[in-house]
Write a structure and sequence with these properties.
Elements (H helix, E strand, L loop, with lengths): L1 E4 L2 E9 L2 E14 L12 E15 L3 E14 L7 E15 L4 E14 L6 E17 L2 E14 L6 E12 L10
């Protein structure tokens, strides 16, 4: 168990309606609870961190391209194991294009670096993600999509490395007007 304190100074700037930047420089202090177990490293961690989000979208007549970069820290406990405190840096490029009125295609590529200073020894993961899709909307409330995604992770720990290839088909039903359950 631990608490993280991060005093930070930063700026947010909206360049246009299609782009903005939020950048902050902070100093994090990870205050760990003392453990009775001598095998657990309960020394406090600290260091400078860039907490940022930069976004830009380029709209075109029949599609758009967008770029997103982020960095910061988070608690990585959403998987099968609790990896603890995590410092990350990532970037993602997305594109979509309307081939016809009811047929669109999309693609993305992203790269993320995760540092886990709590792991003994410390661990770094690098993840490449990419995907493509083809969507068809025969009715205003019905959309189907055929897609492919790739996730390739390399890590300091061989047990955490993997490559995932996924092909999927989805059908989305969404009413034209919201359904109100409670009135």
């Amino acid at each position: 168990n631990y608490s993280v304190y991060q005093p930070e100074v930063g700026i947010f700037y909206q360049f246009t309606e299609n782009s903005y930047a939020r950048v902050g420089l902070g100093y994090y202090i990870q205050d760990k609870d003392k453990s009775d177990n001598p095998n657990v490293d309960d020394s406090n961690e600290s260091g400078f961190i860039v907490d940022s989000e930069v976004y830009k979208i380029w709209p075109f007549r029949r599609g758009n391209i967008s770029l997103l970069t982020t960095s910061g820290y988070q608690q990585d406990d959403s998987g099968s194991e609790d990896n603890g405190f995590n410092i990350f840096y990532q970037g993602r490029l997305d594109a979509d294009y309307a081939l016809f009125r009811r047929l669109t295609t999309d693609a993305y590529v992203g790269y993320r670096v995760d540092d886990y200073p709590d792991q003994q020894p410390s661990r770094t993961d690098k993840t490449l993600q990419a995907g493509v899709g083809l969507s068809y909307q025969p009715l205003p409330w019905l959309t189907s999509k055929l897609g492919y995604t790739l996730r390739d992770r390399s890590s300091d720990r061989n047990a955490d490395e993997y490559t995932e290839n996924r092909v999927f088909f989805s059908v989305t039903i969404s009413p034209e007007r919201p359904i109100r359950l409670l009135r």
